[in-house]
Write a structure and sequence with these properties.
The complex is a heterodimer of chains A (164) and B (118). With 164 residues, chain A is mainly α. In chain A, 80% of the residues lie in helices and 0% in strands. Chain B is globular. Chain B has a 4-stranded antiparallel beta sheet. Chain B has a 3-stranded antiparallel beta sheet with strand order 3-4-5. Chain B is built from 2 helices and 7 strands, in the order H-E-E-E-E-E-H-E-E. The chains are: A mainly alpha (164), B alpha+beta (118). At the A-B interface, helix 4, helix 5 and helix 6 of A face helix 1, helix 2 and strand 7 of B.
Chain lengths: 164, 118
């Protein structure tokens, strides 16, 4: 139990570091919250190692801390919407078990960006924001593939450490 | 990689490609609608170079029309995404300033529908 708490703490810290790294990368698509989603690595790893509840707590803590450190109240609620949609899709796909880590990660990446776009449409009441979708899908796929490969390679190693 | 992974990736890329092709075929249309909180504020003629200032409560966006293109050149929003979106001129292109609920859509004046959800 203690070990699990410590491990989730590590994953939060790691996710936070990834969020920070990403905040340094200039945005290609200037829509708030639409990004590569590097922190999805930490989320996906938590999902595979522990489960839905743990991943939800881990991601919530990460977004809260990231908003406090290099964001705003606006970015907190905004980030939460995409994160929630992405985590729900990922947990569903893991349950169905038809996809490898790569597919799950790609779907999560796309879902994150689609979630942000939907919220942007609701906030501005401008459906035209929809036309940014192709860029969001492609960036979600590219980042998703990289993250998926990393999760696939590192998962057995981390699993051994957690089980010990 | 499993079969379902490939299906997802390829479907995603095809959808993106279709969207890109659709956007590339749009023409310069010469008019832009300015919205605040979903309400149409005014329609701007992009053939007249001019600077417009929009102030709603504490939110200020300064919009510039130059050479048939339109951009937000100044904003007091936190992330400046609206400025980073740069100049747009093609039909259906959009600039949004999310924290200000402010948006600009390039429109074809002959279109009898608009892009606002009521």
């Amino acid at each position: 139990m203690k070990k699990k708490v410590a491990f989730i703490g590590l994953l939060i810290a790691f996710g936070l570091a990834l969020s920070f790294l990403e905040s340094l990368i200039p945005q290609v698509i200037p829509i708030p919250g639409v990004k590569l989603g590097l922190a999805n690595f930490a989320v996906l790893m938590t999902l595979y190692l522990f489960g839905f509840k743990e991943a939800l707590i881990m991601n919530f803590a990460r977004i809260l801390l990231a908003s406090m450190m290099f964001g705003s109240a606006f970015s907190f609620f905004y980030a939460l919407s995409g994160a929630l949609l992405s985590i729900l899709i990922e947990v569903l796909l893991i349950k169905i078990d038809k996809m490898s880590e790569i597919g799950v990660s790609v779907a999560g990446g796309i879902a994150h960006n689609v979630g942000q776009i939907l919220l942007a449409i609701i906030i501005t009441k401008t459906i035209g924001v929809f036309y940014y979708l192709p860029f969001l899908i492609v960036s979600g796929i590219l980042a998703g593939i990289v993250i998926g490969i990393l999760v696939k390679k590192l998962r057995p190693v981390l699993k051994r450490i957690v089980k010990d | 990689m499993k079969k379902a992974d490939w299906i997802l990736i390829i479907t995603g890329l095809l959808i993106a490609l279709a969207f890109v092709l659709f956007l590339l075929t749009q023409k310069n249309s010469g008019y832009a609608n300015v919205y605040y909180d979903g309400d149409l504020i005014e329609t701007i003629n992009l053939n007249i170079d001019k600077t417009y200032t929009y102030q709603f409560e504490e939110n200020t966006n300064i919009v510039s029309v130059n050479n048939g293109q339109i951009a937000v050149i100044e904003s007091n929003c936190p992330n400046k995404d609206c400025i980073n979106m740069g100049y747009i001129s093609k039909n259906k292109q959009v600039i949004v300033c999310l924290p200000h609920k402010f948006s600009i859509s390039v429109v074809n004046k002959n279109d009898d529908y608009d892009f606002v959800i009521e």
